[in-house]
Design goal:
Pathway: Protein modification; protein ubiquitination. The chain is α+β, with helices and mostly antiparallel strands. It has helices at residues 2-8, 21-30, 51-56, 61-86, 107-124, 129-141, 154-167, 181-187, 261-268; strands at residues 240-241, 244-245, 283-286, 299-301, 306-311, 314-319, 325-330, 336-341, 347-352, 357-361, 366-371, 378-384, 387-392, 396-401, 410-413, 419-425, 430-435, 440-444, 452-454, 461-466, 473-478, 484-489, 494-500, 505-510, 516-521, 528-532, 537-542, 549-554, 560-565, 569-574.
Length: 603
């Protein structure tokens, strides 16, 4: 009766539903939403059965098909009614959504939703941030790791472009869940200890909007987007404003490019070009008998714009303005182990292999005095106005007042091996000393006990430089077994930063005009590197020496550096560019008043 009732109500038969009843039952159970409501005005017409069919229990073929279809349709309606009654919150008057899965699929929106989940997982697991970022950038942009000669800033630019295109102005931000004290206590327990799981359901580590769930409708149920203008679909009408139609030619409505206007501005924005540094020295001088000894300091550039070089047992002067060379002195039965100019004036200090310290007037080419005290070679010298400090292989440091008749005024003992690096910070009155015992010590003024003692290096500390741009910032470099540049805060006594250079650090010097530092290296690359501080990115890497670059000095104006190596050459590099002011006539390391007379060329 129920079947006849449904039939009499005019249920329509779909052409696709004429199949055996067993198949209809399985299809209805699997997908109850596939039934189609009968269109109005159509009635089911049942053909009368033949006379003999009732007696034999059989009907004709036509009536059999109609009866099976009617049963199939009635069962579908009953199952659909039960499904609607069992579903909570369903509205009986709710209209069926229109599904155009074969018309338009917005893959950009789909890919954005997937990347939102990945972005949230990255925020929840910060340890995998760098690796996942590289994987996403490689998979999205198909870009490999930039080569050293390529612009390394192209990666962040393309990453910003991709994020802007995918998320527009709404970049997902997911904060990681807070860890309870109990969770922290358990996480620090034994790694192999098993814990009893809680009775309740496990808490979800993902936000509620990212919890995966089974969709109750078709996955790709998209319609042609006609409601949005920012996402590039074609609008249904011309955008209007209160002054009339929107005629802004920069509007994305009229754009023919698949890239948004904001992304175009990002890609077209000018980039700051890196500073060009010449990779070739503008001058090369021969320096015969320049010692290939890591612990010596044989090159220094004075404030009078004269370069002093110790070669064997002699000291030579090179005038940067006239390019003339003169020999200052030759030691008898001794060798030159260090040279150092006073900050202001024409006096130069010379350390010898026998432990003597001589002071010469370079303008008059006259020796002023000889001071004793050390019992071995003097490899390091440093000036602080009228105070001359010397360090020796005998592990001692002497403070000498060149105005007093005494050979020394204070003796410092702290290093266990040869003292090979000395630098004064004249503004704060602090002295930094480095030794072959891998120690870096900071002495306050003329105190006989160190203020700070740093033991971070694992090799000899010869390279020492005080920053002229930041108070208390001290840079030091280690030898072959260390290869690091370490930055120290001498105000707090802490390590600020460090970088592994990959080769022996022989010398360090800060730029006077910019926050950059130059380092010279030995084994195994023999290069000169200019670093940008504090990022410690390489501005330039200069090569040319065939031996360790053991010596480094900077011109008074801070524009040129000169390097010396065991290959017995001095090379001049225009590294830091010109500074405002008049330079020398030939453009070679100007600055400073030239008080010294022109010397004749050595034959």
């Amino acid at each position: 009766m129920g079947i006849n009732g449904d039939v009499s109500n005019g249920a329509a038969l779909s052409p696709t539903m004429k199949r055996p009843i067993q198949e209809s039952h399985s299809s209805a159970a699997a997908s109850p939403r596939l039934s189609t409501p009968p269109p109005p005005g159509e009635r089911l017409k049942v053909e009368p059965s033949h006379a003999g069919s009732s007696r034999n229990g059989r009907s004709s073929s036509r009536s059999t098909d109609i009866g099976l279809d009617a049963v199939d349709h009635a069962l579908r309606r009953e199952i659909g009614r039960q499904h609607r009654e069992s579903t909570p919150g369903a509205s009986p008057s709710r209209k069926r959504q229109r599904i155009n899965g074969d018309r338009y699929v917005d893959f950009l929106t789909f890919f954005s939703s997937v990347l939102v989940a990945d972005w949230s997982l990255i925020a929840l697991f910060p340890r995998g941030l760098a690796k996942t970022s590289r994987q996403v950038s490689v998979s999205c942009m198909k870009m490999g790791r930039p080569r050293p000669h390529q612009d390394k800033r192209s990666g962040p630019r393309m990453g910003s472009f991709t994020i802007r295109e995918l998320f527009e102005n709404s970049i997902p931000q997911v904060s990681p869940p807070s860890m309870s004290p109990e969770h922290n206590r358990l996480s620090h327990g034994h790694a192999t200890r098993s814990h009893t799981p809680p009775n309740g359901p496990p808490p979800s580590s993902l936000p509620s909007n990212l919890t995966p769930s089974t969709p109750h409708k078709n996955l790709f149920s998209y319609m042609s987007p006609r409601h949005s203008i920012a996402g590039h679909p074609t609008p249904s009408r011309t955008p209007q404003s209160r002054h009339g139609p929107n005629l802004d030619t920069r509007s994305e409505v009229y754009s023919l490019s698949p890239v948004r206007y904001g992304s175009q501005q990002l890609l077209l924005s000018p980039r700051r070009q890196p500073r060009a540094v010449s990779k070739v020295p503008y001058k090369v001088l021969d320096a015969p008998e320049l010692a290939d000894d890591f612990y010596l300091n044989l090159v220094d550039w004075g404030n009078a714009n004269v370069l002093g070089v110790g070669l064997g047992s002699s000291v030579y002067m090179w005038n940067a303005q006239t390019s003339r060379v003169n020999k200052l002195c030759t030691l008898e039965d001794d060798t030159v182990t260090s040279v150092s100019w006073i900050q202001k004036g024409t006096h130069i200090a010379i350390g010898t292999g026998k432990g003597l310290v001589q002071i010469w007037d370079a303008e008059r080419q006259r020796r002023l005095r000889t001071m004793v005290g050390h019992t071995n070679r003097v490899g390091a010298l440093a000036w602080n106005t009228h105070i001359l400090t010397s360090g020796s292989r005998d592990r001692s440091i002497y403070h000498r007042d060149v105005r007093a008749p005494d050979p020394w005024m204070r003796k410092l003992v702290g290093h266990k091996q040869e003292v090979c690096g000395l630098k004064w910070n004249c503004e704060d009155g602090q002295l930094a000393s480095g030794g072959n015992d891998n120690k870096l010590m900071v002495w306050d003024k003329l105190s006989d006990s160190p203020l700070w003692k740093f033991s971070d290096h694992t090799a000899a500390v010869k390279a020492i430089a005080w920053s002229p741009h930041q108070r208390g910032l001290l840079a030091s470099g280690g030898g072959t077994a260390d290869r690091r540049i370490i930055f120290h805060d001498t105000v707090r006594g802490t390590v600020v930063n460090e970088i592994d250079t990959g080769s022996q650090v022989c010398n360090l010097a800060w730029s006077k005009n910019s926050n950059e530092i130059v380092s010279t290296h030995g084994y195994s690359q023999n290069q000169i590197v200019v670093w940008k501080y504090p990022s410690m990115t390489q501005v330039a890497s200069l090569t040319g020496h065939t031996y360790r670059v053991l010596y480094l000095a900077m011109s008074p104006d801070g524009r040129v550096v000169v390097t010396g190596a065991g290959d017995e050459t001095l090379r001049f590099w225009n590294v830091f560019g010109k500074r405002g002011g008049r330079m020398g006539e030939d453009g070679e390391g100007g600055g400073g008043s030239i008080r010294l007379q022109e010397w004749g060329v050595i034959r």
